[in-house]
């Protein structure tokens, strides 16, 4: 699956893996996000924090007709206001994709898979 | 001062929150990271106000309990990135001293530092050059200072001083800040909070509105915002970036009393990107205008002009974009015919005329299967000569191209993602020439959502979709994008479509008949609707569209 952008010179295909990587990078820069999680919690172990190279296991890019939807699975830091952190991620992801890929997304859905409690 | 208790701390919070509130607009103006939406000050102020309110209501002499109230209030009211970070900073601060009734300088600084550590723990990839950096640097210096003095005021002074110095360094750490020429907005917000703390400890009053050198930052941020809007030099409407200061004179004020918001209002007629900051003695003005002289004459009514700077932005812009400017350039540009245009897409001359008749400024006539490209849409917008535009694709396959056209056209543009002609018609009828582009787009989108669309078209091959068996050359009835019937009889397809779309709440059925349908047949269809759905009004239009014998809209 990939995103297709057409312009006067031809078309550009961006694979979902690339989108997932871009989206994941944008998300972990957001305050309150301590990591990306796998969407298969049971199979991949509970709230294991994904390494960079496997972000695509925690970011789903769905192409429905001409619309792009993004589902992302994240782990937040304990003590943060989760609703607000999630909203920040949504807005950052939307902005980043528009800026870097020139691609509007229809929706960004955040699934909070875990809260990391530090011993502080 | 050797120590503070909970009541003193509550006063500090109140003053910090108030000082931030006083300067929230300025913090907003600096906001370019992580997303340049200009709401950092607003968000931080809402978060801090919520913290201050909770603190005030629950303030006791025991510091730990008061700090706990603060962190609760901050958590409940946290808004935006900066608000969440602020709440974490004080959550850590409160945790570190939860069992202390009072603290001295050493414990106070240690608590600030613990707050920073807590805040850093809640992010995987801390971005330096933000509020986090400012908090960290300030706390570290506070800890150092506390080791050398037992005066808590001296510790807070060191914290404030370092927070300001760290704020000045933020552009060296975060590229986007340097690009725009501003300091970090969240960091600036934190500095205001700390300044409030210090003033409270010292028993000083803070100025109601600060004016210090902030004009430059405001101007930078303002330019950053406006530069993004220009693609071509000839698009610059107000060509002179004009800055001047008015030194008030008593005799002039006697006839023209100065009021900042009236003054701002008075200047706004001359251009845009207007900034006004004033205190008792002077007013600083920044404005983009085509008549710098008129703006300055206006300022002179209140005093004498000092420090005048006027720059020709067209010249500067040409240097930036490196184009060879010539007067012919502007000559070729179409005159502004529709300052606020609606550009839409249609198949069939009848439908195109109908769209124009309800208010479309331009209709791009896509051919049989030819969907207009981004380029076609941009060209149509340019031919209309609009300053602001709303684009209605009326087809889900064109929405993407429309979005891209809005992106590159270089004027204020928004897409109303209409998927069918009926949706487009409903959206245009909701257009309000007085409203902002985004507000309009939202209202039009909503109007479009109330319309149900039905279409009848030919099947091009044998297949099965949505569980419906389809034979080549059948007529397919499509209700809201879903195929509900496939039959060799056009009438039967229409009747099934009407039965599935129209319910007792609906009032109007509009029928657009295509180029392959005779006027007689269409009239027969109108009679059918009037007889079978007597509670509705029926409207009939000769759409002349290809491929779709009938398009109906029900609302």
Mean pLDDT of chain B: 84
Largest sheet of chain B: 6 strands, mixed
Give the helix/strand class of chain B: alpha+beta
Greatest contact pair? A-B, 31 and 38 residues
Low-confidence stretches of chain B: 227-231, 320-335
The unreliable regions of chain A are none
Ends apart, CA distance between termini of chain B: 73 Å
The major β-sheet of chain A equals: 4 strands, mixed
Helical fraction of chain A: 25-40%
Determine the strand fraction of chain B and express it as a percent band.
15-25%
Shape of chain B: elongated
Question: What can you tell me about this protein's structure?
Answer:
The complex is a heterodimer of chains A (120) and B (555). The mean pLDDT of chain A is 81. Chain A has 120 residues and is an alpha+beta fold. Chain A is 30% helix and 36% strand. Chain A is elongated, with a radius of gyration of 15 Å. Chain B has 555 residues and is an alpha+beta fold. In chain B, helix 2 packs antiparallel against helix 3. The longest helix of chain B has 22 residues. Chain B starts with a strand and ends with a strand. The relative contact order of chain B is 0.06. At the A-B interface, strand 1, strand 3 and helix 3 of A face helix 5, helix 6 and helix 19 of B.
Features of the shown structure:
heterodimer, A: 120 residues, alpha+beta, four-stranded mixed sheet, two-stranded antiparallel ribbon, B: 555 residues, 18 strands
Per-chain topology:
The complex is a heterodimer of chains A (120) and B (555).
Chain A: E1 2-7, E2 10-15, H1 16-28, E3 33-36, H2 41-44, E4 59-64, E5 67-77, H3 82-100, E6 107-116
Parallel strand pairs in A: 5-6
Antiparallel strand pairs in A: 1-2, 3-5, 4-5
Helix pairs in contact in A: 1-3
Chain B: E1 3-5, H1 6-22, H2 24-30, H3 40-58, H4 63-77, H5 80-96, E2 102-104, H6 105-121, H7 131-146, H8 152-173, H9 175-180, H10 185-202, H11 214-227, E3 240-248, H12 250-255, H13 260-267, E4 271-278, E5 282-289, H14 292-300, E6 303-312, H15 313-321, H16 327-332, E7 338-346, H17 349-357, E8 362-365, H18 374-384, E9 386-392, H19 399-408, E10 412-415, H20 421-429, H21 437-449, E11 452-458, E12 463-465, E13 468-470, E14 475-479, E15 482-487, H22 490-501, E16 508-513, H23 519-532, E17 537-542, E18 550-554
Parallel strand pairs in B: 7-8, 7-9, 9-10, 16-17
Antiparallel strand pairs in B: 1-2, 3-5, 3-6, 4-5, 11-14, 11-18, 12-13, 14-15, 16-18
Helix pairs in contact in B: 1-3, 1-4, 1-10, 2-3, 2-10, 3-4, 3-5, 4-5, 5-6, 6-7, 6-8, 7-8, 7-10, 8-10, 18-19, 20-21
